[in-house]
Amino acid sequence: MTEVPGSPPARRLLLVHAHPDDETINNGATMAKYAAEGAHVTLVTCTLGEEGEVIPPELAHLAADRDDTLGEHRIGELAAAMAALGVTDHRFLGGAGRYRDSGMMGVAQNDHPACLWRADPDEAAGHLADVILEVRPQVLVTYDDNGGYGHPDHIQAHRVAMRGYEIAARRGHRIDRVYEICTPRSVVQAGFDKLAAEGRDFPFEGIATPDDVPGVVDDELVTVAVDGAAHADRKTAAMRAHASQIAVDGPFFALSNDLGQPFFAVEYYRQVHGAPSGRADDLFGPEQEPAVPSGGEQR
Ligand SMILES: [Zn+2]
């Protein structure tokens, strides 16, 4: 580390995700905001998303049941998305291609010997602990223990994150605060109400429901809301970069199920480890005050 002794510690945020695109859909505004404020943002993606369903017809040949080159393609999409968000530190767990996408729960791909679902938990978490010890983040963000919506790779990403957190603590770096990604029920409902009220023609086949949104929780369980509205354009650009997986239409988007969903620039978190930050709008605690005020009149 090259920190100057006596200077305020830099803020360091680590996010652990299953596939390229999950980081942008869930945390794109948060990542852009903290990166813009000078925090060190590290993304660890566990698989290349080889089993994803491809939306644009002209890219259909990339799919796992055809050329099986979607993973390589998504490395490029993720790089473009990170450029859009202003995030420079991005890695794949154990190196690109170390763990393969396991597909949806119950499919034959769950048994692929190289897939993340079959990974040795200690080995996979050991790779993450190596990153934690190198970067020494104060904040870790990942999914809840159901992976938000039950996808094997999302469940496994949660397990890798939590075990990696414990291994790193034993090896010398305890992360101050761990958060799970969530969305408050009232916000999801309001977003869908707005989508319905637009009453215009969407290019999507239908409209999703709140049940289609991962990680919906009762409002009182939410600890922190990060307002990334000032960085919404960056999140939109990053979503467009994941073109094989996401179709964007103004303030709405659709995944491969072609059901329109509202776009959120405020992103929500539930703290599960560490002392409460004491802030409703910041993942970091008072120990990690930004070195320079972000401008404007201070109260
Ligand atoms: Zn995913």
Q: What ligand species are in this complex? A: zinc ion
| Class by alpha and beta content | alpha/beta
H/E order of the elements? EHEHEHEHEHEEEHEEEE
Amount of helix? 25-40%
- Which superfamily, in CATH terms, is the homologous superfamily of one domain? LmbE-like
Distance N to C terminus: 33 Å
Radius of gyration: 19 Å
CATH level-1 class of one domain = Alpha Beta
Strand content: 15-25%
- Strand tally, please? 12
Q: What is the CATH-assigned architecture of one domain?
A: 3-Layer(aba) Sandwich
Count of helix runs: 6
Largest sheet: 8 strands, mixed
Low-confidence stretches: 295-299
Mean pLDDT over the full residue set: 91
Shape: globular
CATH structural fold name of one domain: Rossmann fold
Task: Tell me what the structure shows.
With 299 residues, this protein is α/β, with parallel strands linked by helices. It has a domain at 12-184 and 215-246: Rossmann fold (3-Layer(aba) Sandwich). 30% of the residues lie in helices and 18% in strands. Strands 1, 2, 3, 4, 5, 7, 8 and 12 form an eight-stranded mixed sheet that branches. The structure holds zinc ion. Zinc ion binds next to loops. Belongs to the MshB deacetylase family. InterPro entries: GlcNAc_PI_deacetylase-related (IPR003737), LmbE-like_dom_sf (IPR024078), Mycothiol_biosynthesis_MshB (IPR017810). Keywords: Hydrolase, Metal-binding, Zinc. This is 1D-myo-inositol 2-acetamido-2-deoxy-alpha-D-glucopyranoside deacetylase.
